[in-house]
Amino acid sequence: MTALHGFLPPLTPKGSSALVPNPPWYYSGTLLTIEYLTDPANVRAILPDDIDLAPDRPGAVALIWADWQSCSEGGLELLDPIRSQYLEAFAVVRCAYQGVTYSRCVAIWVTKDFAIGRGWFQGYPKKFGSIHVTRLFNRGKATPRLENGAQLGASLSAYDHRLASAVVTLREPSEDNGFVNGHKMLHNRFMPSIATGGGMSLDQLVSMGGIDVDLGPAWRGDAELSLADSQWDELGSLLPVDEVLGGYYREVGTTFVGGELVTDRSRPV
Amino acid sequence: MTALHGFLPPLTPKGSSALVPNPPWYYSGTLLTIEYLTDPANVRAILPDDIDLAPDRPGAVALIWADWQSCSEGGLELLDPIRSQYLEAFAVVRCAYQGVTYSRCVAIWVTKDFAIGRGWFQGYPKKFGSIHVTRLFNRGKATPRLENGAQLGASLSAYDHRLASAVVTLREPSEDNGFVNGHKMLHNRFMPSIATGGGMSLDQLVSMGGIDVDLGPAWRGDAELSLADSQWDELGSLLPVDEVLGGYYREVGTTFVGGELVTDRSRPV
Amino acid sequence: MTALHGFLPPLTPKGSSALVPNPPWYYSGTLLTIEYLTDPANVRAILPDDIDLAPDRPGAVALIWADWQSCSEGGLELLDPIRSQYLEAFAVVRCAYQGVTYSRCVAIWVTKDFAIGRGWFQGYPKKFGSIHVTRLFNRGKATPRLENGAQLGASLSAYDHRLASAVVTLREPSEDNGFVNGHKMLHNRFMPSIATGGGMSLDQLVSMGGIDVDLGPAWRGDAELSLADSQWDELGSLLPVDEVLGGYYREVGTTFVGGELVTDRSRPV
Amino acid sequence: MTALHGFLPPLTPKGSSALVPNPPWYYSGTLLTIEYLTDPANVRAILPDDIDLAPDRPGAVALIWADWQSCSEGGLELLDPIRSQYLEAFAVVRCAYQGVTYSRCVAIWVTKDFAIGRGWFQGYPKKFGSIHVTRLFNRGKATPRLENGAQLGASLSAYDHRLASAVVTLREPSEDNGFVNGHKMLHNRFMPSIATGGGMSLDQLVSMGGIDVDLGPAWRGDAELSLADSQWDELGSLLPVDEVLGGYYREVGTTFVGGELVTDRSRPV
């Protein structure tokens, strides 16, 4: 009898239909990050009961636009680039669990289905969005360059509602591209019982991080950020901006090979 | 402390960001169905080991284009129709488990993220696709009408590769719109461990069906169907067409309120 | 030597690459119309100098969502429906020229390139948009029906900015679906000289209307309408709503076979 | 009375709704070029009667994927990058007119409406397509780098039919990125009379080229190219590949400020 192959469904004998292939997953791209402060009560309100606020600057938020090219082992995706390229816009806060500080993604939109599948696996609460961020080219007049005064724009829309618009003006080289998204991620993975009201068939706390991180030069600067809600998405009301801390741009490469189970409360329901 | 609300992530205090809200989920739309025979060995090859071929016509396949409007309780989605309308193209086979015959979706593409989320919950192996099917209007010359000779086209593309093209020519009223998709669904829900190679954190067999099914008049006729593969999707090689049985068109309404757990092999990994 | 064929470029020996094939063009679909009053000065401001305000209710505006299936002679487009189906959202005012009252489209967004091409030919100032409108199905609970209290939503977005959101609540059958879009259209067609600052190589006033109009029953009711601008599109500031007159829904069919040249001021530049 | 402003319609008092603003138009991006030989009879067949084959290598074709960021004076588009970024895939041949050799675009697909509008103005026969090309990043493992063995993929799809797939393998630095697209462009601009069968209201031959061309280092290598037709687009049958000459990658910047009228045969119809 033929076995079924693939990492995420659909599974087939050959395995090439899988929404997501086996890790490792490789990433090359750019990150445009805006960090700001919101009332820590807003962060507290979107954390599960058993997860605490971070002890330091608990109201810090990073809103990040990632412009990725990504592939699995062998790099087949790079030769049909529609399967390789995608963008993400996501909100990250910090939190603490059993005394350790983690980063945590509390909202994220992506442009491709394989990215949604990877998010389900990793506990990123992914939805589809339309996402754009200014690119840096080396030639011509229709591009900023990596220098003082360079301006990069970014936008996020979902279901045809503009949820975020941003402009970052770079000022100077920086040692890092922010501090909020700098810890291992602490995420929940869950799946309700197929029987309505039956509780959680999958209910896990997991943690993970990238390896082989390959960092380009970081720049920091000023940022303007406008957030909104729609009927289907809360962003402006969930994590309103009190004070912008700064904007950052950096090229990055990273690899994902898996994470660790922290706690499991799943039940056979 | 604020509780978090929502059916599928992201969860928020208010709950309106959820990718999918609580059932019931209501559906109104049209189904264009093409039924055909493939070698039963092809069906056998995509069933898990513990699921058997259906005893009768085990090589029968239904390829279905659904053009849906859908909403949850209260119908808010209908007032912002981008959140309500989507299309699906999916392949259904029949199978048997512990002596009972079921329908089973083995491949499915949809046009919206909330539909992907519902599929993840129901065990439909959903991916994103670009899907189109001819509509029936009542006025003018750019539409077939529900009559002998009416022709409806349909297409499915994923990652810019055309996977299926079809034309159905209606001939006569029919008592049903096929037999392959007529049983309760038997699906697998699974999620690999976050630790690579760690086995399945969620591994369930579930079954489900619609309620309050509201059927319009069915028509049957002839069908032409062309299937293909891409690097990312197997369809033409997975379930090749030996003999087309017929094509069907029907308006339908249905409601989903949940299903039943059949077996659970999940492990806390 | 082979001749080149096709109605709009690209032209090829076979002619099947043309962005738009030869008329006649057939249309079947639905119209959701909202009529309202704006200050007549707003209408005056977007008419060319030589075109006058309509003598009666000069500040009346119709904002229309059309959900079309369309084909040319032979109907090949209907068998590959991605080439046949599109939506339009457009603003129509009335005007007068040499004593005759016309309708005039002053802003329009569509979802397909062939529709942009037809607009360029007809003098509709078409741009690309993302457009949605609630559909009426006959089965199930996720649809309004043609009855008192039925609610239909509609949206228009361009470059990920929401420009219009509307809800129409139907109340009763109506003899028509409004009066603003009821005259022949009076449009300008122009093309600047390829030499910058060279004037207009094409500068025409044209008129046109549909034939073989096939009308379904019209319903009228109340409407809510919210308009906005973006950096790239003026709608809310251009034709702000003073008073909503009503909302309408109607199925329609029509055929376009060409129009008439009214004046020509083109120059060989 | 208020004047109407804007380069291409719609025109408004403020002018910010124009599909395309006034030149100059600035471009920064990358070009992936594949040059090949087809039978010169194929090139002859898609040239108008009064345009000749180029005297040297008349069967040479360049198929080019351009990944652009573009803006007008002031650069506002760069701050809302959805309005600035687009891709093009286009086929270029060479031709001769009155003894001068020109380049000529005979088929082109783009991803944004403003690019279609610029094409109408410049005589590029633009249609919408879905276009992707591998990008070069500087970090991580999901990217080729500018070196021997680097592989870049590219695809073009229109109406969900894959029309072209390509892979270029870079081998060495090159002095240029091909010879086919290296001359001034010679294009036709036309618009049929609004009266069916009425001839051409606009019928011009125009020429143009870029200024301030800013070229990055070029690389050349091998290429694989697969072309196809659909019902709506001729490419594989129009310009079939006899022999691939090579593949090229180069970053480029350019500026468009207008062109020259060569001949005018427009008539007031």
UniProtKB/TrEMBL annotation, chains A, B, C, D:
It comes from the Bacteria. InterPro entries: Acetoacetate_decarboxylase, ADC_dom_sf. Transmembrane segments: none annotated. GO terms for molecular function: lyase activity. Pfam families: ADC. This is Acetoacetate decarboxylase.
